[in-house]
Amino acid sequence: MQLTSLDEKSVQQEAMDQTLENLGLQESVLYWFHGHRNVSSAINEGKYAIGPGGRTVRLNNPKNHVFAYVPGPLDRRLFDPTIDVYIKKPAEPTFHTSLHSPEPPAGLP
What we know:
alpha+beta
């Protein structure tokens, strides 16, 4: 079965459901991320589009890098695309630059 169809914005619901069922994840997966077709800038500033039923989240913006943070168990909250999907503009500095310090923190070899 083919997951993403050739028409604009569609996901083959049957293929997605069967995949989740085969993996034993049908009841625990809240979102299915995909990005075959771009998201129009008229929809959520081009960040994401939520499919019918609310389970599919389409991420694709060919002019910018789109990132989605999926909260884990320690976050104690569910994914919220309004705050968890971010577009990094090309002029912005790279992420996590503070993690690549040339000197190790004091007390470490």
